[in-house]
């Protein structure tokens, strides 16, 4: 009988500090007039959520390879839409295509399962 591997501690203070910094950066960008009309808190929040997906999961796995890039690309698409360079009727299909491609990539055998996943017992 094998013992389960020790779980890595979840570093809540690090995640909280990164989120607070993101809010501050978004607020500062808005106050300084960079990208007027862009909701920087939302956009940077999406980007940070994408990066934190990889940090919290401990790297690339079948979940983070889908969720992380979705947040990151969502952040970029959000900036493009808010600046008038991309219409929502184009943004949403791009995002749907991205999700399909990322799910297909996650099916590759060389991408590991998440460490926390326990397969069902027969």
Overall outline: flat
Quaternary organisation of the protein chains: single chain
Instruction: Give the biggest beta sheet.
Output: none
Domain module count: 1
The number of helical segments is: 4
SSE string, helices as H and strands as E: HHHH
SS strand fraction: under 5%
**Counted beta strands:** 0
Class derived from helix and strand content: mainly alpha
Helix fraction? 55-70%
Q: Uncertain regions: pLDDT < 50 for 5+ in a row?
A: none
Report the mean per-residue pLDDT as an integer. 85
Radius of gyration from CA coordinates = 18 Å
C-alpha termini separation: 16 Å
Annotate the secondary structure layout.
Elements: H1 12-31, H2 40-57, H3 64-82, H4 88-106
Helix pairs in contact: 1-2, 2-3, 3-4
Describe, in plain words, how this protein is organized in 3D:
With 122 residues, this protein is mainly α. It has helices at 12-31, 40-57, 64-82, 88-106. Helix 3 packs antiparallel against helix 4.
Features of the shown structure:
122 residues; mainly alpha; 62% helix; flat
